[in-house]
Write a structure and sequence with these properties.
The chain has helices at 41-48, 71-74, 93-98, 113-125, 141-154, 171-184, 195-201, 219-222, 225-232, 266-269, and strands at 3-12, 15-25, 30-34, 56-61, 64-65, 78-81, 159-163, 187-191, 204-209, 212-217, 234-240, 247-253. It is built from ten helices and twelve strands. Bound molecules: adenosine-5'-triphosphate (ATP).
Amino acid sequence: MRVTASDLRVTIDGHVILDDAALTAETGAVIGLVGPNGSGKSTLLRSIYRAIRPDRGAVLIGQTDVWRLPARKAGRLRAVVTQDQELHNDFSVQDVVALGRAPHQGLLDRETADDREVVAGALERVGMTWARSRLFTTLSGGERQRVLLARALAQQTPVLLLDEPTNHLDIGAQLELLDLVRDLGLTTICALHDLDHALAYCDELVLLRGGRVVAAGGPVDVLTPQRLTDVFGVRGAFTTHPLTGRPHLVVAALNPADPPNRRVDADSTAAPTA
Ligand SMILES: Nc1ncnc2c1ncn2[C@@H]1O[C@H](COP(=O)(O)OP(=O)(O)OP(=O)(O)O)[C@@H](O)[C@H]1O
């Protein structure tokens, strides 16, 4: 299902932290949100998953304005894995994943055989079946992350929103999780810090800086060497990955002699130059 966000502005305590933000995620596409710390990636995601109400703009999933829906109905359209430390004291892993079924249940409904099957399937998909009876709080950070992804899968939504899903994961687990996310075939919007992962796993990128979208489109077109310098203050170049044969991004610090160009201006939003 297609996701469209248009003209979003978010103001907190009188400060505009997201302005004029827009994106389109076509059905089944994986869209990466990239940008330096504090550029507004999480805020854009939050305004899409209804954690922060934008004071302007709209978010549509299909034809439905998510901000005009009751929370439970929104929970059938999109699932979220955030960076927030969720503790779930006294919950087993299975209980945590079962929370994903809530949007499909009435208030007093008991868990059905179908719910149990979906929960078991979600745990299996993320390779955490072995931990189903463990207390969630006893898992490592990476294991928790996989369980939270299983909870999102148990929601059985057409849209998945992920905020830095590879946090806490070792390098093998990062690639495994990103492969899994790609294989799901869901419309996915994912904030990522690792630009090479963004390049390898996303169909399109939205580059943010200072709460504004400065470029959007194919990863190679968005992550131009000029933008890597302007937005991230690094030098960058594409090469061919020696193992996969795919484009690979390498970065290095700016030469001390190169003044970092930290402007956001019309040049940053112009068509790619490289
Ligand atoms: N509740 C809040 N109150 C005040 N300022 C906030 C709040 N939430 C976000 N901000 C500010 O808005 C800006 C964007 O934050 P956001 O978390 O969206 O950035 P980000 O790109 O996700 O950053 P990071 O890569 O560090 O996670 C930051 O300057 C942040 O301090």
